[in-house]
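can u do me a favor
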């Protein structure tokens, strides 16, 4: 089995990763949506359990 040597290419500015870009407004909005989703899921589970206990 023959293998070919891999060619290494130079990294340009678009290939570098300097970490996430933090937009505080989007972060706040995402946190708000995540909290509402968590609270909503707790209420939904409680509602389903309540309906199950009734029937």
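np, heres the sequence
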């Amino acid at each position: 089995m023959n293998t070919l040597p891999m060619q290494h290419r130079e990294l340009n500015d678009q290939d570098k990763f300097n970490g996430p870009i933090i937009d505080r407004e989007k972060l706040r909005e995402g946190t708000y949506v995540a909290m509402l989703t968590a609270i909503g899921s707790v209420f939904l589970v409680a509602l389903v359990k309540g309906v199950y206990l009734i029937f």
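The chain has a mean pLDDT of 80. hope that helps!!
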